[in-house]
From TrEMBL:
GO biological process: cholesterol biosynthetic process
Natural source organism: Champsocephalus esox (pike icefish)
Superkingdom in the source lineage: Eukaryota
Protein name (record): EXPERA domain-containing protein
Keyword S-adenosyl-L-methionine assigned: no
Membrane-spanning residues: 33-52, 64-82, 127-144, 151-171, 186-208
Family: Belongs to the EBP family.
Length: 229
């Protein structure tokens, strides 16, 4: 259900009295937008999965490691392209009808902070787009070429993602979940909760993995030093 703000502009966002004077309703359906998002993400995942299945100089990557590299490839797309668009055009998104702007207007039904260019959201997404986007693609390259710093990248990216996601949820919690229809199965639970909690669960797993890998490498280095002495 759309609401009319004090300016007389109809919009579907919460809180209902939100002022969005430049808002123009999407002319693409929710299904069109979601098909675009998940099909392109799926394409990145599929291509990366096929590439990581090739035998390299150090042999083939294991299934777990291939999935981790696929995750970074998808993150590179979402951070660099989707969130990169928001970081550049957040001020015109309510009125803009390009595909990525309509994607953000659709997502804003689950968190209207995006359609009003909330300060925290703009800052957080800008850092995410311009740091974790390129770093994610760098991580893909590092794992494919067996670079010695690959787990350092994994740790840095995952810590950044986790920190951003925790702040994202916590700031909205302090606002009383006022920017979405609390409990709505699609807008609240799927858009706001599910699509963001992934950046808590998966980075946590990757942080533990990087911790173990780096600790094992340091232990090996320490053992070599002690043998020399």
């Amino acid at each position: 259900m759309d609401a009319t703000s004090a300016t007389g502009v109809l919009h579907p966002y919460w809180p209902r009295d939100l002022l969005i004077p430049t808002y123009v309703a999407n002319d693409r359906s929710m299904s069109e937008i979601l098909v675009f998002l998940f099909s392109v993400s799926g394409l990145f995942l599929l291509v990366t999965w096929l590439i990581t299945g090739q035998k390299g100089k150090t042999g083939r990557l294991g299934t777990w490691r291939r999935l981790a590299v696929c995750w970074f490839a998808v993150c590179g797309f979402i951070h660099g392209v989707i969130e990169g668009w928001f970081s550049l055009y957040y001020d015109i998104i309510p009125a803009d009808q390009s595909l990525l702007s309509q994607l953000w207007k659709e997502y804003s039904k689950g968190d209207s902070r995006y359609v009003i260019a909330d300060n925290f959201t703009v800052c957080m997404e800008t850092v995410t787009a311009w740091l974790w986007g390129p770093f994610s693609f760098w991580a893909v390259f590092a794992f494919l070429t067996n670079k010695p710093y690959r787990f350092v990248l994994q740790l840095i990216i995952s810590l950044g993602q986790l920190y951003g996601a925790v702040l994202y949820f916590y700031t909205e919690h302090r606002d009383g979940y006022s920017h979405s229809e609390l409990g709505h199965p699609i807008y609240f639970w799927f858009y706001f909760v599910f699509m963001n909690v992934l950046w808590i669960i998966i980075p946590l797993v990757l942080i533990v993995d990087a911790w173990r890998q780096l600790s094992a490498a340091q232990t090996q280095t320490d053992n070599k030093k002690s043998k020399r002495n």
